[in-house]
Design goal:
The complex is a heterodimer.
Chain A: E1 18-22, E2 30-36, E3 39-50, E4 63-70, H1 86-99, E5 111-121, H2 126-140, E6 150-157, E7 160-163, H3 167-170, E8 177-184, E9 191-194, E10 197-198, H4 202-232
Parallel strand pairs in A: 4-5
Antiparallel strand pairs in A: 1-2, 2-3, 3-5, 6-7, 6-8, 8-9, 8-10
Chain B: E1 3-4, E2 11-12, E3 17-20, E4 25-26, E5 30-33, E6 36-39, E7 43-48, E8 51-56, E9 68-77, E10 80-84, E11 90-94, H1 95-98, E12 118-126, E13 132-135, E14 143-144, E15 148-151, H2 157-161, H3 166-175, E16 178-181, E17 186-190, H4 193-208, H5 215-227
Parallel strand pairs in B: 4-8, 11-13
Antiparallel strand pairs in B: 1-3, 2-7, 3-6, 5-6, 7-8, 9-10, 9-12, 10-11, 12-13, 12-14, 15-17, 16-17
Helix pairs in contact in B: 3-4, 3-5, 4-5
């Protein structure tokens, strides 16, 4: 049976319900929560602070470190061994690569900014949720940066190109599935993260990138309001 | 024709375009991209003539010359003290600048300031690599004995002090506390237990409600009510 109707009744270019909140972790210099459907990410930023061991210090600019971690009880509860894995190291790296070009740490030589992303609940799209949360947390921590980052996944199930796949769609068995997380700088439209697994044609990639634009804009607006409201005491 | 896209005192987030055209100049917290001026930090819009800058709303303390700060002595070196000043870099008080007294050669430095002591000091030098020198060669700079310390966001310090120190003198007067506010966001206060409690609560209240106007009157009411 072809996948022409999504199992939860969403439109092809519709994301799951999104929530964004800033300042959720009191001890951190900046923090944020980003929830999309059943995927929930917490990000905490510490720093700029002194970097140890000293040989890692960079006297020309500050260092950025990102950590992505899924908690053992997240997802299907099958990640029972906590701590870093092959997968979380990869995602930490791509998250770092997506923030490195936009944060400006020249004013903080020899220091480090640590970004911790923890996922309490995952239902696919976790690296995108993590990046959205981390971008708000970095801004909240007062780190100079050229732009926020908004991310969402695109992809296809069977012949349908769609946005923000959940786990059921990602693991759809009867059809060809492809999942493509994308992170964008909303002001310029530059892409800072684009990964893909599965099988997808060039035309379908182009179509996916096109229908991603509207949901990305929506997410960006939410991030912006969450950041502004955290200082005016407005509605969360 | 140039266009400024935000009103003064509006909150902007990094990446938002603040102004278009070449008539304005990018100030602190902004950068130029083509003919646009774009925000670099989360802050409040500030327009001064042609200059567009942002007043940051968050972030760690950035050391500046002549700032009076509160720090904790973390180590004693051969030529002075190393002080944690609640920012990304530690600071140094050299023997020469440590007190107005004479310090003899081979003196036991922990007799002056020991590890763990809190001191009130002034920043005299910040280098490009953020090596920070402090000075305590003025009678108003001293070791802080007793009392309590609270930490507030460094961007809220001007609000706690108030215009021409109106807020802080009001709190001092009403609660009878001695209060020092470090530019780095550490506040030291000492007084009668009740007054001290009320003053600490008032300062934290200012931090939480700093975006409201007419705050001095509200805080005054709050203190009077709490002291009853």
């Amino acid at each position: 049976m072809a996948y022409t109707k999504r199992h939860d009744g969403r439109k092809m270019d519709e994301t799951r319900p999104v929530e964004a909140e800033v300042g959720v972790i009191k001890n951190a210099d900046g923090s944020a929560r980003f929830k999309i459907g059943d995927t929930e990410a917490y990000a905490a930023v510490y720093g700029p602070r002194e970097l140890y061991p000293s040989f890692l210090k960079n006297p020309s600019q500050g260092t950025l470190r990102c950590y992505y971690n899924m908690l053992p009880f997240s997802g299907m509860g099958n990640r029972v061994r906590p701590g870093p894995s092959r997968r979380s190291k990869e995602i930490s790296l791509v998250t770092h690569n997506c923030f490195q070009p936009i944060v400006d740490l020249r004013a903080f030589p020899n220091t480090v900014v640590d970004v911790y992303i923890e996922l309490t609940d995952t239902d696919a799209g976790s690296r995108c949720a993590g990046i959205c949360a981390a971008s708000m947390a970095l801004a909240h921590a007062g780190v100079p940066m050229k732009d926020l980052v908004s991310a969402v996944s695109g992809g296809k199930v069977g012949k349908s190109v769609l946005v923000d796949l959940d786990y059921k769609e990602e693991a759809y068995e009867n059809e060809e599935v492809s999942d493509m997380p994308v992170a964008v700088l909303p002001r310029t439209g530059e892409i800072v993260l684009l990964q893909m697994d599965g099988k997808i044609s060039v035309d379908e990639i182009k179509k996916a990138l096109k229908i991603l634009k509207k949901p990305i804009e929506k997410i960006y607006e939410l991030q912006k309001t969450a950041l502004k409201n955290s200082f005016t005491g407005g509605e969360k | 024709m140039s266009k400024v896209l935000f009103e003064p005192k509006q909150i902007v987030v990094p990446g938002e375009t603040l102004a278009e055209g070449m008539d304005n100049l990018p100030g602190e917290g902004t950068f130029r991209d083509g003919d646009k001026i774009v925000a670099n930090v989360l802050g409040l819009m500030n327009v001064k003539g042609r200059l567009i800058s942002l007043i940051p709303l968050s972030g760690k303390y950035k050391p500046k010359r002549d700032d009076v700060i509160i720090g904790r002595v973390t180590d004693i070196a051969s030529k002075g003290w190393i002080v944690n000043i609640n920012c990304a870099y530690h600071a140094m008080i050299t023997l020469k600048d440590a007190t107005s007294d004479f310090i003899p050669k081979d003196a036991n430095l922990s007799k002056y300031y020991d590890v763990g002591d809190y001191v009130l000091a002034k920043i005299v030098k910040v280098t490009s690599q953020n090596l920070i020198d402090l000075s305590m060669r003025d009678p108003r700079f001293k070791k802080l004995d007793g009392g309590r310390l609270i930490e507030i966001n460094t961007t809220k310090v001007p609000r706690v002090i108030g215009k021409a120190a109106s807020m802080i003198s009001m709190i001092k007067e009403k609660t009878g506390c001695r209060i020092f506010v470090g530019q780095n966001g550490l506040v030291w206060l000492k007084g009668e237990p009740k007054g001290e409690n009320v003053a600490a609560e008032a300062i934290l209240k200012i931090e939480r409600e700093s975006h409201l106007s007419g705050l001095t009157d509200q805080i005054e009411k709050f203190i009077v009510k709490s002291l009853k």
